[in-house]
Amino acid sequence: MPRHPETVITPNALLTEKRASLPSPRRPGQRMSRTELADAVNIALARLYPDRDLAAHYVDHRWIGKLERGEHRWPSDERRAALRRALGAASDADLDLYSPRRSGRGRRDAVDQRQFAASGSGPDLSSSGNLLQLGNPTPGHQLLPDGGLHRTISAPGGQHFPGVVIDVEVYPAVDDGRILATIAPYATERSWRRSVQRRLILGHVDALDRAGVFALDSRQADRHLVEADRDARLLIPRVYQLDAITAGVLWAVANLDLSLLLDDARLDAAQAAASPYRDMARSAASRDIAEDLDSVSRLWIGSAFCADHIRRHSHVLSDVPVYWTREQRGEEASTWLLFRHKLRYLRETADWFRSASQPMTRMFCLPQHAVAASSASERILLLLAVALMESLGIHTAVTDDPEYGALPGLVMDKRRAIVATWIRADDVWHVDLADHGNTVAAYRDALGHVQAHSVAAGATPGGRLHHLADYLSLDWHWLQGRCADLGQYGFAGLAEPRSRLLSLDGVDQACRFIGSLPY
Fold this sequence. Notes:
39% of the residues lie in helices and 15% in strands. By secondary structure, it is an alpha+beta fold.
């Protein structure tokens, strides 16, 4: 029987090109095969859903072939999530995946507002790097008077993050070159314009060729309202589409912000308790000094103390130093981007030897198991942290050898090392001055090997960052385009911190730098 003309199968060239652009994990110099992609999808399934029986979801090369031939366009949620992770894609659209039931002729670009509210549905955030999850409608408060939906977004916890739930209001939106969410006229005095807690206003564009979710911080929404005769429309900047970049930054800000705000007074007390240690060349503070603080606040107090320790003892360094830092996940690396004191410290240390004949270098250990366990959003936060350092003239090097993960955080020249550890440590901090010949020689040999065998080696910042993006399975060209837009606009309209201890200056600077690099 001949196919209906509207159901003609067309090959998924975008998916095929994406696979063919990735290197084979088994055959050096070759491109990823369908079998290798199927294996990567199955591995991603197991890691994304460790507590579920996924036997029915596992795939093989024949399934990949059907996808590439266009015979399937809308796999299950689980398979799509695993496929995005295996290919480093930020959204289903990036792989030309869509539901055929939603692609018929005459489909309207704008979703009818009453149908949107009555459906109780809303946007799918699974394209946001599997980091943000849209919760079910609030019981008893699903429908808002203006036709929107009251929902929540879960910004899940991590090794240090406690996990945060963000209130959101979802409205139907159209994309006519601008993102305009429609809000009934009597709702323009809504309480979200004066919300104390973090709240997002989401515009959900559900057009076939321009689907997406766009977000705005509720405190920014007021100035973006555009009055009209029959209703009001909320103008949401297109740059604030929720994808792996924006979701990652929002996830980090929301988690860091909540913890630091709740512990604000206790952090002052903990800093006062830490002051007697300032004059010591060697100290290790047990968790008792911060027993009333949560994990994020302990990170902050340890990071701040270690930065001050390095400043206080920088006079012992006679040569251009090399830095070793212990962050392995985007959760940890987000502190470089968002802790206000970290950016100040980076800028100061970058200036110490700026006139020297050789640059300073910062080194990371990013083993494969840590990369594989990270979502796309976390891997992007890692890349942004490294880009921030490169933007300040600091060269970076990365090893994938897990054995180096045991090295303490340190700064060293040819004769001395300043030890300062606060990440993945038993204590809140451990600091020391090392000038014993054997100890310094062991550190020097280890860091020399890392620098000589960096998986992100390159002669230029752009080259190093591009290689790092490849190692992290991120689409460098997509990242450059998004970072250029986000760097120009800034994240304040989406993820403005409430805590005095946080700043968006670092992540904005990193985005501007990536966006300014030659393509």
